[in-house]
Design brief:
Elements: H1 5-15, H2 26-38, E1 42-45, H3 48-52, E2 60-64, E3 73-78, E4 91-93, E5 96-98, H4 107-125, E6 133-138, H5 146-149, E7 160-164, E8 171-176, E9 178-187, H6 203-212, E10 217-220, E11 223-232, E12 242-251, H7 256-274, E13 277-279, E14 282-284, E15 287-296, E16 299-300, H8 306-317, E17 323-326, H9 332-338, E18 345-346, E19 350-351, E20 359-361, H10 362-377
Parallel strand pairs: 3-6, 3-7, 7-18, 8-17
Antiparallel strand pairs: 1-2, 2-6, 4-5, 5-20, 8-16, 8-18, 9-12, 9-15, 10-11, 11-12, 13-14, 19-20
Helix pairs in contact: 1-4, 4-10, 6-7, 8-10
The structure holds zinc ion (ZN).
């Protein structure tokens, strides 16, 4: 069974013109809500938009009823695009959809959305046995996954599925790092640098000592740490009283990131101890304020799991040798993993995304739709 390719392409060309950069997704949300409601889905819009000031109310979640006894299969994508995306003019040329070069195409992720809409249309108009389908369409994926971070999954009953949001349909991203931001504030002691430097503790010197003892960069093939921002000091004639250092660590292996963060924190604390001193009979010492913040959780789906085996098996029917892959970035899939949902990412045929050279390979787009339809039709859990 196949989807209606031409209808899907027409739909893609139509929705790629909807203006909806990250934070201004209202137009695309309204379209998706109308379309999925028309197709018979139960649609729920959460309140995520408020958390980062979007023009859209929230993420869209939806249920499409099945007619066999099974857990739902989840299909997901994102509603926003990067810029420039005003007046997108899609052009078909040599088997690809491209733009006039003035804007992005927005196939990232409108190609994914068009596939999801077309699969629901196909299920609706054909008398065929299929499991229920849950749908998750997020806001602001490109802007830092702010939609998925505030996603309300209350109507989502499925536990696994796929995100349609990458380039190749022979690659399935199952592993991407957890990332944590860290902030170290080093409080020294201010003193007039010209008159009484010995009465002060220079925060910069404490930080330098700490950093000189620190492992940074690539720690192991799956783990990195980095210091990226330094803020402090106001005047050259004052012993620097305070300094804030900001960095991040990422790891694709459970536990390694925590170990690195502990190491970095320990270096600051150890350095602070080296600068304890007595001034006029009183002990003065630097203080370290350490804070961490989860940027996104670990994506780590077992390549031998039933879900991945099922996807690979369906791929073979289309002559596709689907391979699992790791990626260094953070995706909605990471955030959804943190909410207990297993959603590997499959490509839909776009290339050069986030540039005005972005294109969509029409054959890959069609094939992916048929493949994902097959994955849904043969899913039972
Ligand atoms: Zn995307």
């Amino acid at each position: 069974m196949k989807v209606n390719h031409q209808r899907m392409l027409k739909n893609f060309l139509e929705i790629t013109k909807i203006y909806a950069p990250s934070g201004e997704e209202k137009g695309m949300l309204d379209y998706a809500k109308k379309e999925l409601t028309k197709l018979g889905c139960k649609v729920y819009i959460d309140k995520a938009g408020k958390t980062f000031g979007s023009t859209a109310q929230g993420n869209l979640t939806a249920n499409f009823k099945g007619n066999i006894k099974s857990a739902p299969f989840i299909l997901g994508g994102h509603l926003d695009t990067v810029r420039p995306c005003k007046n997108i003019k899609p052009i078909i040329k040599n088997g690809k959809v491209i733009t006039d070069g003035k804007t992005i195409l927005g196939a990232d992720d409108r190609a994914g959305l068009a596939i999801i809409f077309e699969i629901i249309r196909t299920l609706k108009e054909n008398k065929v046995k299929h499991p229920p389908v849950d749908i998750i369409l997020t806001l602001c994926e490109e802007g830092g996954m702010f939609g998925s971070k505030a996603l309300d999954t209350k109507i989502i009953k499925g536990k696994e599925g796929m995100l349609l949001d990458s380039e190749s349909n022979e690659e399935l991203v199952v592993n991407a790092p957890k990332a944590v931001l860290f902030y170290a504030t080093i409080k020294g002691v201010a003193s007039h640098a010209g008159v009484a430097p010995e009465k002060g503790i220079n925060a910069m010197q404490v930080a330098s000592k700490a950093i000189s003892m620190m492992r940074l960069g690539r720690i192991d093939p799956m783990t990195i740490s980095n210091i990226g921002i330094v803020n402090g000091g106001q005047s050259t004639n004052v012993v620097m009283p305070e300094l804030t250092i900001q960095g991040e660590a990422r790891s694709r292996i459970k536990g390694h990131l925590e170990k690195e963060l502990k190491h970095i924190e320990d270096c600051f604390k150890k350095a602070a101890k080296m600068f304890v001193k007595k001034v006029d009979g009183k002990t003065i010492k630097p203080e370290i304020i350490w804070k961490t913040e989860l940027k996104y959780p670990l994506l780590n789906i077992e390549p031998k799991s039933a879900l991945i085996s099922h996807i690979k098996k369906c791929g073979k029917k289309f002559g596709l040798n689907i391979q699992t892959a790791s990626s260094g970035g953070g995706f909605d899939a990471n955030v959804l993993a943190g909410k207990g949902l297993s959603m590997p990412i499959i490509g839909v045929g776009y290339a050069d995304e986030h540039t005005t050279k972005e294109s969509l390979d029409i054959e890959t787009f069609f094939q992916t739709a048929d493949l994902v339809l097959d994955i849904v039709l043969n899913y039972k859990k």
